[in-house]
Amino acid sequence: MNDQEEILISKKKLRNKSIVAFILFILAIAAAIFIWKWIHSQPEIAEAPKPLRKVLAVNEKVFSKAISNYHLAKTYPVSEAVKHVRVNGDIGLKSALDSNWKLHVVREPGDTLLITLADIKALPKTDLVFDFKCIEGWSQITHWAGVKFSDFARKYNLNAQTQMNYVGLSTPDKEYYVGIDMASMMHPQTLLCYEMNGKPLPLNQGYPLRLIIPVKYGIKSIKRIGTIFFSNTPPPDYWYERGYDYFSGL
Ligand SMILES: Nc1nc2c(c(=O)[nH]1)N[C@H]1C(S)=C(S)[C@@H](COP(=O)(O)O)O[C@H]1N2
Ligand SMILES: [Mo]
Q1: CB within 8 Å of 75: residues ≥ 6 apart
Q2: What is the greatest pairwise CA distance in the chain?
Q3: Are residues 142 and 236 in the same domain?
Q4: Is the pTM of this model over 0.85?
Q5: Pocket of ligand 1 from Cβ distances under 6 Å
Q6: Measured distance CA(50)–CA(34) in Å, rounded
Q7: Are residues 179 and 208 in the same domain?
Q8: Whether residues 70 and 188 fall in one domain
């Protein structure tokens, strides 16, 4: 084989290689278009095609497991809880409390459950002693008791509601309000709380019912809950509107 022939052969090889590469390129594009069309031809679940929704569901499972099972806030013996619990923030507590207070749980617009404090106290009670952290920089080991929100949701058949992404809570006068992601709300240490240091909550600490949510900074532990509702989009949040982080997680 002379030089001339060698050059001819390698040119031919190169040309064949280019053709193969080009065909593979076309096939890859065709496959991408096919997969795209297939995904979009699938039935939709909650506004996402089923295959994508499946991926989201797996993500959700991984993260809700990570949040609810592996990230428990540290707890303390009752003896370590302070006797004089600091009072911080009175937004939504300035008007007189309606003596006929009931918790409003909006199952869906136009369908609201009215629940008395006695009803809530009849549910299984959970005590919790943890280090309560305010975003202003102080913290205190404090002792609370109430019903786990997850127990409450189960007892009141809020299954469809707890499939949604967020819970919104507000004071009866709507002056203070928070939005909480569902995984944090269903966390086993999140309480609808009616006791502090073994006694009914003082008025300035949220009597008759407040939230205690140890996976968040104190801003999310709303005092004097009036209404609870459910939403797939983030509910309004008092401190978020004033520049704080929406999730304020710990
Ligand atoms: N209704 C209402 N809830 C509230 C507040 C508030 O101003 N109004 N302040 C929040 C903040 S910033 C903190 S740190 C805690 C303080 O709870 P404590 O007063 O029982 O210590 O309540 C939270 N819940
Ligand atoms: Mo706070």
Answers
A1: 128, 129, 130
A2: 106
A3: yes
A4: no
A5: 85-93, 134, 171, 176, 205, 218-219, 221-224
A6: 16
A7: yes
A8: yes
Q: What is the 3-state secondary structure (H, E, C) of 174-216?
A: CCCEEEEEHHHHCCCCCEEEEEECCEECCHHHCCCCEEECCCE
Same domain, 37 and 48: no
Whether 97 is in a domain gets the answer no
Q: Determine the distance separating the centroid of ligand 2 and the alpha carbon of 51, expressed in angstroms.
A: 42
Smallest-distance ligand from the CA of 86: 1
**Alpha-carbon distance 114 to 124, whole Å?**
19
Number of domains in the chain: 2
Q: How far is CA 217 from the centre of its chain?
A: 14
Distance CA 200, CA 238 (A): 26
Q: Residue 211 Cα, ligand 2 centroid: separation in angstroms? A: 13
Is the domain of 24 the same as that of 136?
A: no
Residues 48 and 143 in one domain: yes
Domain of 199, in residue numbers = 44-92+103-242
* 193 in Cβ contact with 146 (< 8 Å): yes
Residue 98, CA atoms < 13 Å, CB-side half-sphere = 14
Residue nearest to atom 7 of ligand 1 (CA): 89
Q: Per-residue pLDDT tens, the chain, 250 aa: give them.
A: 566 666 666 777 777 778 778 778 778 877 776 767 777 777 766 556 777 767 766 765 666 555 544 589 999 999 999 999 999 999 999 999 999 999 999 999 999 999 999 999 999 999 999 999 999 999 999 999 999 999 999 999 999 999 999 999 999 999 999 999 999 999 999 999 999 999 999 999 999 999 999 999 999 999 999 999 999 999 999 999 999 999 999 9
